[in-house]
Amino acid sequence: MVRISKNMRKNWVVCSLIVVMMIILGGCGSSEKPANQGGTSAGGTAKLGVVSYLTGAGAAYGESIRHGLELSRDEINSKGKVKLELIFEDSKGEKNEAINAVNKLIHKDDVLSILGPTLSGEMFAVGPIVNQEGVPIMGTSLTVEGITEIGDYVFRNSLPEFAAIPQSIKKAKEKFNLKKVAVMYSDNNDLGVSGFKIFQKSLKEQGIEIIAIETFADKNTDFSAQLTKIATLNPDAVVVAGLYQEGALILKKAREIGITVPIIGNNGFNSPQLIKSAGSAADGAIVASPWYPGKDDVKVKEFIAAYKAKYNKEPDQFAAQAYDALQIMAIAIEKSGSTTDRKKLRDTLATIKDYSGVTGKFSFDEKRNPAMDVTVLVVKDGQFTELK
Amino acid sequence: MFWQQMVNGITLGSTYALIALGYTLIFGVLNIVNMAHGEIFMFGAFVGLILATKFNIGIFGALLGAMVAGAVLGYLMERLALRPLRRRKVSELAPLISTIGVSIFLESLALRLFGPQAQSFPGVYSTQLFEIGGLKISAVQILILAISFGLMLVLRFWLSKTQLGKSIRATAENIETANLLGVDTQKIIVLTVMLASALGGGAGVLVGLAFNAIEPTMGITMGFKGLAVLILGGLGNITGAMVGGLLLGVAEVFSVAYGVSSYRDAVAFGLIIVLLFLRPQGLFGSQEQQGGR
Q: Does the distance separating the beta carbons of A63 and B8 come in below 8 Å?
């Protein structure tokens, strides 16, 4: 190796960092092809595209969604009323990847409709494009406000946070007589920020004082500073808006440093993985959910049994919602009587009412958001149970 | 609360320092920022986890196993991704890019092998709490601190006093001269990369124990923090890596404790920028001798 002068070495480090940044930011670019109406497919099989978070930090969500969809597809195909083909695309949780994925699905694969993407932020990026192309798109895991306002072709079957959170706060107040709480939220995640705003609003409505607001970021692992601070304030409960990975770590750390009060989470807490990761520390976690695995309902029990048999693990909310989404899609395709007409599918989807699925009774409201029942759950002895 | 937060900060800081040590060693000798270090760290964490949960061999066994795994990965990386480039005398940027390639490969491999879910060590290792005058310190926190300071002292002694350490320093100083003087630089380079990677693997287990979240992308954020510490402490300086790591950790924790938690990283990295204005060569880097080797 040749000897390098001091200045060159410095430049070299700067260059290296620039290259690193470029690689991180890079990976853009999309193929453009003129839009054509109506997905084409052979033999009456409806081609559906799926954009999901299959690799990367949130891959656990994408995996549940894919399992739920595949299980649902196999059941629908075996019934034989409609035949579905699913084409999976990985968004890696990134907006530009999601845009590339929908462009490919619409222009190359010519799909009838799209399910996904996984994150609300991704939908805000791809929704306008898909809507403009006149392709119906249904989110199965999006809970942020303003999703279906993107356009008439945008649907979701996941319960928005603004419908779920006020219920959990109300129930928790009745039960634990909350007066002052500390709030923590993930400030680099649309779900965390929107969850925080809704928590703030419903806490105010219930006359509960917020004594501390702390933030963290997705992928953080150290919450000791925030929780040490919160512990000294002695709140009646801790409210957390974020995803389960961080949620579980917060629960563990909080219990470790002696915070024993209930911890109320947003939709991100609603996963068996939360309990699995946090162990006994998960006891006392509260979340409002349309999906309740302990529900006394044949459909729910059958779904859990089939899911366990196929994937050897418990389904979570994401799997359940994805499962229902494809069932709803299949009903709409059957009713519309066409596997190629996107406009007809949209119009039929919008009229879906009183479908009873594994996440309960389901209808689309006039804004293509779901209207469904909510159960407030609390973790007790490592199980989600109804908070009564 | 102040002292409790101090303990939190030092724990976080010593994990940063551990990771920065590996960067520093490789930079010192090879002049390469090893972008795959974070992923070797992640692999170490997983190997430790598997040894601890599947084979039940206790925490020190897991630590040792992770270090061996790290060293093996380091060896492979040197043979497959660095040495071929060194022979051809290509641009200085090439090894950097090739280590980025290694890092992406390892991350994808880990996703395949271990799945995307975050996993954690069994509770027995992390739940032992000691109360000292109202301070809660866990056994893991003490372990991390002891191991990282221990490693730093051993490294310093080894580099300055032993024959092998002297060869490493000679290679770092000037590879051609070292060669002329009879140092087997090829061997020294392999050894350094393996040593740094073993440190990375061990750090993975300790960080996994401290924060309970082992997953395939954990290397990225930790890797960047390690890079920041490398620059803060002075490129290629071992004491700098230690002090810089602790400083960054404490700064992060205190900006949460006495400020606004949203500005955690902004405060910590703002501090680095200010420090670099005052001392562009880093805290312990000397002006004359680049990297203080």
A: no
Contact criterion met (CB below 8 Å) for A125 and A62: no
Residue contact A219–B217, C-beta within 8 A: yes
Question: Which residue range is the domain that position B176 belongs to?
Answer: 2-219
User: What's the start-to-end Cα distance of chain A, in Å?
Assistant: 72
Distance CA A270, CA A377 (A): 9
A231-284 pLDDT tens trace: 999 999 999 999 888 999 999 999 988 899 999 999 888 888 888 888 889 999
Please report whether residue B287 resides in a domain. no
Q: What average pLDDT does the structure give for chain B?
A: 86
In the predicted structure, residue B222 carries a pLDDT above the cut 60? yes
Q: What is the pLDDT of residue A170?
A: 92
Does residue A350 register a pLDDT over 80? yes
Is the peptide bond between A160 and the residue preceding it cis, with omega within 30 degrees of 0? Answer: no
Residue in B35, B89, B212 closest to A249 by CB: B212
Beta-carbon separation of A221 and B218 below 8 A = yes
Counting the structural domains of chain B, the total is: 1
CB distance from B273 to chain A under 8 Å?
no
Exposure b/e, A57-89, CB count within 10 A at least 16 = b: bbbbbbbbbbbbbbbbbebbeeeeebbbbbbbb
Contact B212 A221 (CB under 8 A): yes
pLDDT at A68 over 90: yes
Containing A89, the helix (H) or strand (E) segment is: strand A83-90
pLDDT, averaged across chain A: 87
Instruction: Please count the other Cβ atoms lying within 10 Å of the Cβ belonging to residue A310.
Output: 13
Region B112-117: mean pLDDT is 84
Query: Quick one: DSSP state of residue B119?
Result: B
| Distance of alpha carbon A367 from alpha carbon B1, whole angstroms | 49
Question: What residues in B contact A56, CB-CB < 8 Å?
Answer: 116, 217
Q: Is the pLDDT of residue A227 over 90?
A: yes
Convert A317-329 into a string of H (helix), E (strand) and C (coil).
HHHHHHHHHHHHH
Distant-in-sequence, close-in-space partners of A361: CB < 8 Å, separation ≥ 6: A354, A355, A372, A373
pLDDT at residue B125, rounded to an integer: 62
CATH number of A45-159+298-371: 3.40.50.2300
Among A217, A259, A219, smallest CA distance to A239 is for A259
DSSP letter assigned to residue B123: G
Evaluate whether A45-159+298-371 and A162-289 have a shared fold: yes
Contact assessment for residue B8 and residue A225, using Cβ atoms and an 8 Å cutoff: yes
How is domain A162-289 classified at the CATH fold level?
Rossmann fold (3.40.50)
A368 neighbors A148 (Cβ within 8 angstroms): yes
CB contact A13 to B (< 8 Å): yes
Check whether B100 has a pLDDT greater than 90.
yes
Over residues B186-210, the pLDDT tens digits come to: 888 999 999 999 999 999 998 888 8
Tokens of A338: 């066409």
Within 10 A of B107 (CB to CB), how many other CB atoms are there?
22
**C-alpha triplet A363, A364, A367: angle, nearest 5°:** 155
Q: Are A126 and A98 in contact (CB under 8 A)?
A: yes
Query: Would the CA dihedral through A127, A130, A134, A135 be positive or negative?
Result: negative
Supply the angle between the helices B185-211 and B163-173 in degrees, to the nearest 10.
100
Q: What is the pLDDT of residue A237?
A: 96
* pLDDT given at position B66: 95
Q: For chain A, give every domain's residue range.
A: 45-159+298-371, 162-289
